[in-house]
Amino acid sequence: MLRSSLIRAALLMLVAGMFVPGAAYAIDAVLCVKATGKGAPQFRAAKTSPPTPATCKEKEIQIGHFDGTTFQLQEQQPPTAYVHSTPAPVAIGAVGGLNGAATINPMFLPAGTYLVTFTGTIVNFGPSPDLFRCAIYVSGAVVAANAVDLGEAMTVAPMTVQTVLTVTSGGTTAVGSTCLHDNNLPSGGTPYYVDPGATLTAVPIVTGS
After folding, report:
1. Are strands 155-167 and 112-124 parallel, antiparallel or unpaired?
2. Stretch(es) of the chain classified as CATH 2.60.120.40
């Protein structure tokens, strides 16, 4: 967040240099950052008469406002949780093992420590039993996993995986969930899948001030 007094002073100087109010038009401007946390802040200005409010672009967050005279930063509170939920079934590959793994919930998180939970329902409408495994990963590396044995065909089972993890490079580190099964799907079998509504939730953990 932009909290430092030095940063505030630099931003005020920048605004003063960019915008010089005059009688011919009114100025309204907002300071925006990408929702992903990547890139430098950008000013979005509206110079019209009569004045029109300036707005950030889609997928940007407003962190400041300049009304032609004064500039004010807006502190942004992080959400209480980041959530990704699947709107449709996600097929798991027919090949057993890592080659058949399916990414269920991809997500990018700001830097911080999180309690991350995956919940989903594994569906085996195939002709044979199998062992299904789901995991939470960070930058492609598994950090937590669980397994369920669907010992009979035509069965379903809930799956939950939970862990605490730390993201050091906000907006660039991939966090997500993945599922696979051990054995190759028999020829002609109905593909395995994860039901709609499989969810990955990341709750920020605040550790001191």
Report:
1. antiparallel
2. 82-204
